[in-house]
């Protein structure tokens, strides 16, 4: 059975919602063998003018797979349902691709997961000294830093991982070249590949 962990920030999760969430998320394990852990995180957006202020982020991993959905809604229970529905679509898509790879002997049917760990999140409310361009306008600055282990995979596998995570880019080690690379979603909807020269 899938282990489901529920956490929250700036909000309370009623026991009834916690139990219902654990049951709904655990049922997602039926789509793919080996999904053994899920993390559900609730939060409330701070801006009172935002109608859909309840946020739910669900991350599922296991057996080399990693899928994530992050949604907002007016109610936490609705946010859970929307996130679960989104993950169902992603898992169905992943299952179909894995079946095609097994039938066609394609590469990368099973890859190790890429763990992501947040390292440092400075307080964005306190700008550092000297932050500006001299005209009174604040320059953009780095407010979040993440570190993660890259693993070798093909560009196609990296594009799939990017799609499953819902990101606009994905950093990886190119299996074909052995060098650092990035796939990214272009404005025209296609995928671009940036491969390090050396």
The count of DSSP E runs of length 2 or more, i.e. the number of strands, is 10
The helix-strand sequence is EHEEEHEEEHEEE
Task: Return Rg in Å.
Answer: 19 Å
- Roughly how much helix do the residues carry, as a percent range? 25-40%
End-to-end gap: 44 Å
Task: Explain the overall architecture.
The chain is of the alpha+beta class and 198 residues long. Helix content is 26%, strand content 31%. It contains three helices and ten strands; from the N terminus they run βαβββαβββαβββ. It has a four-stranded mixed sheet with strand order 1-2-3-4. Strand 1 (3-9), helix 1 and strand 2 form a beta-alpha-beta unit. The longest helix is centred in the middle third of the chain and has 29 residues, at 76-104.
Supply the key terms.
198 residues, 4-stranded mixed sheet, 31% strand
Question: Which secondary structure elements does this structure contain, and how are they paired or packed?
Answer:
Blueprint: E1 3-9, H1 15-26, E2 37-44, E3 54-62, E4 65-73, H2 76-104, E5 116-120, E6 145-148, E7 152-153, H3 155-165, E8 169-174, E9 180-185, E10 191-195
Parallel strand pairs: 1-2, 7-8
Antiparallel strand pairs: 2-3, 3-4, 5-6, 8-9, 9-10
Helix pairs in contact: 1-2
Précis, in short:
With 198 residues, the protein is of the alpha+beta class. 26% of the residues lie in helices and 31% in strands.
